[in-house]
Specification:
The complex is a heterodimer of chains A (108) and B (527).
Chain A lengths: L1 H16 L2 H8 L5 H52 L1 H22 L1
Chain B lengths: L1 H33 L2 H8 L10 H15 L5 E5 L8 E6 L11 E6 L6 E2 L8 H9 L6 H23 L16 H14 L1 H14 L1 H4 L2 H6 L4 H8 L19 H10 L5 E7 L7 E6 L12 E5 L5 E4 L5 H14 L5 H30 L10 H30 L7 H22 L2 H17 L1 H8 L4 H7 L2 H34 L3 H10 L2
Antiparallel strand pairs in B: 1-2, 1-5, 2-3, 3-4, 5-6, 6-7, 7-8
Helix pairs in contact in B: 1-4, 1-5, 1-13, 1-14, 2-19, 5-7, 6-13, 7-12, 13-14, 14-15, 14-16, 14-17, 15-16, 16-19, 18-19
The chains are: A mainly alpha (108), B alpha+beta (527).
Chain lengths: 108, 527
């Protein structure tokens, strides 16, 4: 479940950065069109990847439940961190993406 | 046309949410607590020790105890302990005096390690919250009906809320704190949208759980009005065999658990029934505990011959419609959830509670703005304010009072369990009176601060009234007990923060009165 959480959090952060307003607030400038596109695609890919890891680890029934749980909670965490600790929110995304291979190694 | 539709939905969302909001807040909060009902019961009966022993060892002890104390009974029922529910409970039914009558039941709780009887203090425990969240402390079936109607309204409010929310994707990650009413709306949208899968699942599944009560037409029509026939067909009664009249020696039951585990590919046994225990015709029925999978299997059981240990009967594979309703039941209850997932369920439940609470606050806040300058509020707004305070902070106080009553009432008091429940409702009632007596914000601050104090002091109270204080339970690794107290402490700190915020914003507001720009932004922001 940890791996799913890390990937979801990373994915949501990428999707968040693909929006002009949030990109501006977090990084201080508007994203280029290519960057926006890249963020959007990688965000959706990370979410899809987290679904795949959850289902492959726990089967469809429990896997889907776990995936929805980490999906909702990672989104909630990100949205609550953004206004109060924006830098922490971003660095957490970096850390979670860096840590996800380790979590993947532990899972498989 | 489209805007007209959206406005109609906004109207529906506003009023359905208001009328049922208070009730739904209570249903959601107590339902959320019910995810930890075993842990709450454990804290409320600290005399029953938590042990980690195998099911086999517990079952052997239970069998020894029953053979000594209830050899002549017609039926034994054994509830095996699991990781969350530490008690081993045995019940037996006396042979009825006449055929066809129900024999009397006796219940005892055993220490799963020593097999000695343990006497826990009389309490409803976490079961009180579980029962309250769908029966609302009303006589059968009114509470179930009211909570089902509330669930339907919740479903309507969810759907109309989604339609009303214009910028569901654009504002997906938006939460702007410290902006007054704007922040409440952001928060309401954020917990609503981000946790939407949970809200939809929990609301829809609650309707599925009570579907036979709400929409009995198909059953009544197919079975000519006799609902009993339907249930007999769906749940083939574990046919109790006639006693042979010859004494028989019941074989050790513990090895049957391993057999069940193999037949159920890992699924564990939660409960056993032994029919005619001392007879040559004894049967042992093993019921699955359902903790190993999401789809709940109603009444999945294995029947063995008690003397020879031969497998007599297995329940058939679940048919698809039943598997679907079992899936919704399982998802709603979350019996399968391990500690991490259970916490996630709990947080989702809190998010749902917060969504309802913020919605109620927004309804009032929007209308209060028009009356900022006048000294008195119109009656209907004052009524909503009082109900908001009592249904939210008052309920939190009542929950705290329930826990305090458990420790403060004498252990051997008569009618103790009922008085704990009475304490809950008395404090809730007092909170209404208090909210009526004090001005809005002052009442919020008082009640939140008192609730914070009560929750923070729960570990202290426990340390003073029982020998099982936090240091002991942590050292023993009794995480259910320690976790309960740490969670109380955490909730207390959060409530103290909320009270402080409320106090400060009241102060700021009295200094600067609502600035005009903010109220304009608000009119725009609230759809």
């Amino acid at each position: 479940m940890l791996l799913g959480f890390l990937l979801c959090y990373g994915g949501f952060t990428a999707l968040c950065l693909s929006m002009d307003r949030h990109h501006g607030e977090l990084l201080g400038r508007k994203p280029s069109a290519r960057r926006r596109q890249g963020m959007r695609i990688s965000g959706w890919l990370l979410l899809a990847l987290s679904l795949w890891t959850a289902v492959s680890a726990a089967g469809w029934g429990l896997g889907l439940v776990q995936w929805f749980a980490v999906l909702m909670l990672s989104g909630l965490l990100l949205v609550l961190l953004l206004p109060y600790r924006p830098r922490l929110a971003l660095s957490l995304a970096g850390v979670s993406l860096l840590a996800s291979p380790v979590a993947a190694f532990a899972q498989y | 046309m489209k805007e007209g539709f959206r406005q109609a939905m906004a109207w529906l969302h506003t009023w359905a949410g208001l009328i049922f909001g208070w009730l739904l807040f209570a249903i959601f909060l107590t339902g959320t607590l019910a995810y930890f009902k075993d842990e709450i019961s454990h804290w409320m009966q600290p005399e029953i020790p938590a042990r980690s022993v195998t099911s086999e060892a517990s079952l052997t002890l239970a069998q020894q105890y029953l053979q000594q104390h209830a050899a002549g009974a017609s039926r034994w029922l054994i509830d095996l302990p699991d990781a969350r529910e530490p008690g081993l409970s045995v019940r037996w039914q006396q042979t009825p005096a006449k055929r066809g009558e129900r024999g009397q039941f006796t219940e005892k709780r055993l220490d799963p390690q020593t097999g000695a009887e343990v006497q826990g203090r009389e309490t409803r425990g976490g079961d009180f919250f579980y029962r309250f969240h769908f029966q609302l402390q009303m006589p059968y079936p009114w509470g179930r009906w009211l909570s089902t109607i509330a669930a339907m309204v919740m479903f309507v409010a969810l759907i109309s809320g989604i339609i009303t929310h214009k910028k569901i994707f654009k504002d997906f990650f938006t939460f702007r704190p410290r902006k007054g009413q704007r922040s409440w709306l952001d928060g309401h949208n954020a917990v609503g949208v981000l946790v939407l899968p949970f809200h939809l699942m929990i609301t829809y599944s609650s309707l599925v759980i009570f579907m036979a009560m709400v929409m009995p037409a198909s059953i009544l029509a197919s079975y000519k009005g006799d609902v009993r026939v339907f249930y007999d067909e769906v749940f083939p009664a574990a046919n109790t065999p006639e006693p042979a009249g010859k004494p028989g020696q019941l074989a050790a039951m513990a090895p049957l658990l391993e057999q069940a585990r193999q037949l159920w590919s890992g699924g564990g046994v939660g409960r056993l029934t032994v029919n005619n225990p001392g007879d040559a015709n004894a049967t042992v029925v093993l019921f699955r505990d359902g903790a190993d999978r999401v789809v709940h299997d109603f009444g999945s059981a294995l029947t063995f011959n008690g003397v020879t240990g031969q497998l007599l009967d297995t329940t058939a594979q679940q048919p698809l419609p039943m598997a679907i309703s079992g899936a919704f039941y399982g998802l709603h209850m979350g019996h399968f959830a391990g500690p991490v997932l259970r916490w996630l369920y709990f947080i989702c439940g809190l998010a749902g509670t917060a969504m309802i609470g913020t919605g109620l606050v927004i309804w009032l806040g929007k209308r209060q703005l028009k009356h900022v300058k006048s000294a008195v509020m119109p009656f209907e707004l004052r009524l909503v304010e009082v109900l908001n305070i009592a249904s939210m902070s008052g309920l939190l106080l009542a929950v705290a009072a329930f826990f305090w009553a458990n420790r403060l009432l004498p252990v051997d008091m008569a009618g103790r369990a009922d008085w704990e429940v009475n304490g809950f409702f008395i404090v809730w009632g007092l909170s209404v009176l208090h909210a009526m007596a004090r001005r809005g914000r002052a009442a919020w601050v008082d009640q939140l601060a008192l609730a914070a104090l009560l929750f923070c002091a729960v570990p202290l109270l426990n340390a003073m009234t029982t020998p099982y204080h936090l240091a002991v339970t942590l050292a023993q690794g009794d995480w259910a007990m320690a976790g309960f107290e740490l969670t109380c402490l955490g909730s207390g700190v959060f409530l103290a923060w909320a009270a402080w915020k409320m106090q400060r914003s009241a102060h700021v507001r009295s200094v600067t009165r609502t600035p005009r720009g903010q109220s304009i932004a608000l009119e725009r922001g609230a759809h």
